[in-house]
Amino acid sequence: MEESKRLNRRHFLGTAGTLTAGALLANPAGSVAAQAKSKTKLALVGTGIRGTSFWGKTIVKNYANETEFVGLCDINPGRLQFALDYIGVKCPVFTDFEEMVRQTKPDIIIVTTMDSTHHEFIIKAMEMGCDVITEKPMTTDEVKCQSILDAERKTGRKVIVGFNYRYGHQFSKLKELLVKKKVGKITSVDFHWYLNTYHGASYFRRWHGERDKGGTLLLHKATHHFDLLNWFIDSDPMEVTAYGELEHYGSNNSFRGANCRSCAYTDKCRFYWDIMKNKRLVDLYVNNEKYDGYIRDNCLWRDEIDIYDKMAVQIKYANNVQVSYSLTTYSPYEGWRIAFNGMDGRIDSWEGIPWRAEERVSQAQLHAQEMNQSAKENDSAYDEIMVQKNWEDYQLVKVPRIRGGHGGGDVRLQDRIFKDPNMLDPYKHSAGSRDGAMSVLIGIAARKSIEEQRPVSITELTDIPVSATRG
C-alpha cells in the first residue's frame, strides 16, 4: 500500500496533547475577531466541498481585512493542493493536525471534517489553546457531545456552531413574530422538511449514507431544523419519540453498481448522476481518490447504506410545547412547511412548495441557488408568512426573497463572526456549544428512540440541565 494510503486518523490528529499555560491566555473568538489592528489567524481542518467553499474561499473573498489563513489540514494530500488553489491562499498544508497547530499558532480552528470526527479536532484545538468554529452537527453521539462540553469547561475556550439557517431572512422574521407574541403563547409546532430526488439522493451517494460516519440524517441534516425549533420555541427539549425506516435507497433496489461512473444500469436508473460533468468535483474528489479511496459518486443502492430515508419525530419541550417533525429524502420538490399554533391564533410559513411559487426552476437549480453565496435579494419576489388571530382574517407578511446562501443566512452569520462579533443580537442568533449540543441531542435521542422503540429523555444523554426558558 502506498505511504499516502497509510495515513490514518490517529496520525491526522497527532499525538502531542500537553496544554501550555500561555495557550490559555489567548483571546476568545469574539475578542480576537474584534481586534482592529491584527487579523484573526484561521486554520481549517477538512478540505471537502464545504470547507473549501463556505469556510474557505468565501472568507478569503469577503473578510480579507479581518482574517488570514495560516494553515490547511486534511488526511488527503491531493485535496489539500486543490484547496490551496481553489481558496486562493499560500499558507502551509499539513496531514498532521497537531503539527499544524504547533507551527502556525492559529487563533481559531475551523472544523469541517467528517461528522463523526468533529469531536476529536474540537477537543484537541481547545486543549492547544484555540477557539473553534465547527460545521453542524457539532458531533454524532452523546459520549462525544459530553466530551466536547467537558473540554470547553476545562480549557475556557469557546465553540461556535455554524447554524446559518438562524440568520436567514425568513426564519429571522418568524423569530421576530414569535418574540412579539403575535398569536399569543405557542402550544405546538408542525415542521416538515422535504428533500428532493436530487438533493436528498446526494446524501446517500456520500459518506453521509453510513451512520458510523454521519450519525444518520437525524444528525447531519436535521440538526439544522432542531436548532431552529429550539431557537423558535426558546426552551429546551425534554423528551423525544421517533420512527424511521430505510425503504427507498440502499438495498431496496433490484440492481446496483460500484458507482455511477462504472455502472451498467445507467440507461434504466433515473438517479444516474455524471460527476465527470462537474470539473470542480472531479478536481476535488475524483482526481484524489487514489489517496484515501473516498468515492463521491457511490451507488445509491449499495448495501452499506444503513441510515433512514424517512423520519418522524415527536418532541416535548420543557415549557410544554409539543412538536411534530418529519424529514423526507425523495420528494418531487425541495422545500418545507412550518406552523406555530398559539393560544390566540396560528402562524404558517413555507418555502419551495411548487403550486405557491411564482416561477419554476429545476430541482437541481434550487439546491445550487441555496448554496450560492453571490445570489442577491429579488425585489419582485417574496416569501410569505401568514399570521391569523382567532376570529380574525389572516394577515400576509411579505419577506424579501433571497435564495442564495441559505436565505441570506450565510453572509449574516459570517459577518457576525468575523466583522462584528459584538453586534447587538436581540433575537439571539449566535449559537454556542450548548445550542450545538441541544440540537444534536434531539437527533441522538430520536435515533435511540427508533432503535430501542421507546421515548428517550434528553437528561439521559449528558449532564446539561433542561430548562423551560433558555438564557
TrEMBL record:
PROSITE patterns: TAT. It comes from the Bacteria. Gene3D superfamilies: Dihydrodipicolinate Reductase, domain 2, NAD(P)-binding Rossmann-like Domain. Residues 41-163 form the Gfo/Idh/MocA-like oxidoreductase N-terminal domain. GO terms for molecular function: nucleotide binding. Pfam families: GFO_IDH_MocA, GFO_IDH_MocA_C. Residues 175-458 form the Gfo/Idh/MocA-like oxidoreductase C-terminal domain. This is Oxidoreductase family, C-terminal alpha/beta domain.
